[in-house]
Design goal:
Layout (H helix, E strand, L loop, with lengths): L2 H12 L13 E2 L4 E2 L4 H18 L2 H17 L15 E3 H18 L2 H17 L10 E3 L4 E2 L16 H14 L5 H14 L10 H17 L7 H21 L3 E3 H16 L7 H12 L17 E3 L2 E2 L2 E2 L1 H18 L13
Antiparallel strand pairs: 1-2, 1-9, 3-4, 4-5, 6-7, 7-8
């Protein structure tokens, strides 16, 4: 195992980013020396990351932490409302977050066999399809609780709009179909896929502020990840190839002013997975450059609260004061898969383990 992966795994286990009750904080704020609040979405990502770490290391500590995080999600589920709040006690629920949580629960179920994780994943997946569907045929990004009324949309804030990025969350339905054998879960995934293929070309650049375009690159990479189950279909392969080119162009253009570690990781992973399913041949030179840039974001410090984690971003060569579980999860997986691809002709097919 790469030393970088080992150090990142140690950060997840020993930094305190996971709270004692199992929930995972959104980030660690280096200037304030404290964790931000626990988020159900980030906890879902952490479950997937910890299961992935267990799969590549065999170390039981990762599976124990993954199970604790999955149990936290089960305990946070509002059974009366049949809703997963944005964070414990929140009056909002997010479509995207729910998809990430379902996929984390499924990862924990596959690794542990705990039926409660599968049951909650299926229940949440059904509520996503029922509660978030809009009359226009897309899916509302945010609902207010307890009434589940849709929140107002903001076209300049991607997380408050329907868009192609939601295809990553829709992967939850694809995975539920595999896990449960209920092919009805395929239909809403296909609905989001069709909508995303029709609209993704308008997503970038999508904002007059070029630094905000970097944030939208992160979201657009979710679209590329969401294509993976169907990446070998001609229309999806074409979208994947075009999307990889567009993300790389904007990342090179904006990167000297503002760059995000998760975008490097997501672009690298998308390249590797697209190559593994035969959709887009791997540009090894570009992938190598992206892996090198990504590695720069891993923290080296005597402080265990940050050592081995990944900085969220860099502005004008200065690190932004956030060490982020999502950046770390994406980063460690991208570097691990790149190492496998670098030393062989093909990237292993690991879509179910995509964090």
């Amino acid at each position: 195992m790469l030393p970088q992966i080992h150090r990142a795994g140690n950060w997840f286990v020993h930094s305190g980013i996971q709270e004692p009750e199992g929930g995972v904080a959104r980030f660690y704020r280096t200037g304030a020396n404290r964790n931000h609040g626990v988020s159900t979405e980030i906890t879902g990502y952490a479950v997937s990351t910890l299961v992935y770490l267990h799969s590549v290391t065999g170390e039981e500590q990762y599976l124990e932490r993954a199970a604790a995080a999955a149990q936290f999600l089960c305990d946070t589920w509002d059974s009366a409302l049949r809703a997963m709040p944005f964070e414990p006690g929140s009056s909002e629920t997010y479509f995207f977050d729910c998809g990430i949580i379902v996929r984390g629960l499924l990862a924990a179920w596959r690794a542990t066999g705990t039926q409660r994780f599968l049951d909650l994943a299926a229940a949440l997946g059904k509520q996503m399809a029922a509660d978030f569907a809009s009359r226009d045929g897309d899916f509302h990004p945010i609902l207010h609780l307890p009434g589940k009324a849709p929140a107002s949309r903001d076209p300049l804030r991607w997380s408050q709009s329907a868009g192609c990025y939601q295809l990553k969350a829709a992967l939850a339905w694809w995975d539920l179909a595999d896990a449960t054998g209920d092919v009805a879960f395929r239909e809403p995934y296909r609905r989001v896929l069709d909508y995303s293929l029709l609209t993704h070309c308008q997503f970038l650049p999508g904002h007059p502020d070029r630094l905000k375009v970097m944030d939208r690159l992160h979201a657009y990479c979710y679209f590329l990840e969401g294509l993976l189950p169907c990446a070998s279909e001609p229309r999806c392969a074409a979208a994947m190839a075009e999307g990889l080119r567009r993300v790389a162009f904007h990342l090179r253009d904006i990167g000297p002013e503002f760059e995000r570690s998760d975008v490097y990781a997501q672009l690298l992973r998308a390249r590797l997975y697209a190559d593994s399913v035969g959709a887009v041949p791997l540009d090894r030179e570009a992938a190598g450059c992206e892996a090198s840039r990504l590695s720069d974001f891993q923290v080296a410090s005597d402080d265990p609260r940050i050592d081995g984690g990944f900085y969220f971003g860099r502005r004008d060569a200065a690190w932004l004061p956030y060490v982020n579980p999502v950046s770390a999860g994406f980063g460690l997986q991208a570097l691990a898969i790149w190492e496998a691809a670098r030393t062989s002709e093909n990237c292993p097919r690991l879509r179910h383990l995509l964090v």
